[in-house]
């Protein structure tokens, strides 16, 4: 399974992809041992626009 497309577009080191529970636990333990902070540039990503697109997708498949 791949991350959602917009998440991939935002990209960056703040995204952790895991496929199993063991991978998830490993990532969380690593983050607990070495906390990190990130600055995200979300200027070109509109939650309202995404909501409208998602609503249109749901209408199209229902």
TrEMBL record:
Q: Which domain of life is it from?
A: Archaea
Q: Where is this region: Disordered?
A: 42-62
What is the name of this protein? Uncharacterized protein
Organism, scientific name: Methanoregula formicica (strain DSM 22288 / NBRC 105244 / SMSP)
